[in-house]
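Module 6 notes. Inverse folding takes a fixed backbone as the condition and produces residue identities as the prediction. Think of it as a translation problem where the source language is geometry and the target language is the twenty amino acids. Below is one complete input and output pair. Work through it position by position during the lab.
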């Protein structure tokens, strides 16, 4: 089935609209590269966790530099300006928790255990919330993302 031009943007917007109305907590986890419209959509979650070495943005640094400077070779500069690292996004309140990744001598089991602990914590904290409070929590989180810079 052929998709109409612009249909993916509409599908992402509809998904975000429907996700925002869900009456259960939503937990999203960025484990590698969260990008494109999917990255935008998971921002609607009540809680967003991110592995410390992952990146999360709605556009690649190459795409950003191509648009901004008409030069995709400036992708390193673009990546810095985009603030797409876990630390940057935590400071901007886009994500709620940075999950430490193992060193070379540690296994991925440690990451899995950390994620399990954090997921259980969120579920425990939200289990007694009303459906309306869960939706309001998600709305307030989304509204408080980022920062305002007066020019």
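Target side of the pair, the amino acids:
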């Amino acid at each position: 089935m052929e998709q109409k031009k612009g249909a993916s943007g509409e599908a992402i917007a509809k998904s975000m609209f429907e996700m925002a109305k869900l009456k259960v907590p939503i937990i999203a986890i960025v484990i590698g590269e969260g990008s494109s419209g999917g990255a935008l959509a998971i921002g609607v979650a009540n809680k967003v966790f991110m592995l410390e070495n992952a990146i999360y943005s709605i556009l690649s640094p190459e795409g950003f530099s191509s648009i901004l400077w008409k030069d995709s070779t400036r992708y390193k500069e673009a990546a810095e300006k985009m603030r797409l690292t876990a630390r940057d996004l935590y400071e901007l309140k886009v994500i709620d928790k940075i999950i430490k990744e193992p060193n070379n001598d540690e296994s991925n089991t440690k990451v899995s255990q950390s994620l399990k602990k954090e997921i259980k914590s969120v579920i425990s904290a939200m289990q007694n919330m009303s459906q309306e409070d869960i939706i309001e929590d998600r709305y307030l989180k989304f509204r408080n993302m980022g920062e305002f810079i007066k020019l």
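Reference fact for the lab report: The longest strand covers residues 47-51.
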